[in-house]
Amino acid sequence: MSGIPFTLIGAASNQSELLDTWDKATPEAKAIIALLFVFSIAAWFVMMSKVVQMRRARKLNLFFGEEFTAQKTVLEMYDRKLQVEGCPLYAVYQAGCTQLDARLRGPSGERAKQNISLKNMEHIKRAIENVVAKESLKLESGLILLAIAVSGAPFMGLLGTVWGVMSTFAGIARETQHGGAATMAGMAPGVSAALLTTVAGLLVAIPSMFGYNWLVHNLRAFTVELDNYAQELVSKMETEFLKDE
Question: What is the 3-class SS of 18-79, one letter each residue?
Answer without folding.
Answer: HHHHHHHCCHHHHHHHHHHHHHHHHHHHHHHHHHHHHHHHHHHHHHHHHHHHHCCCCCHHHH
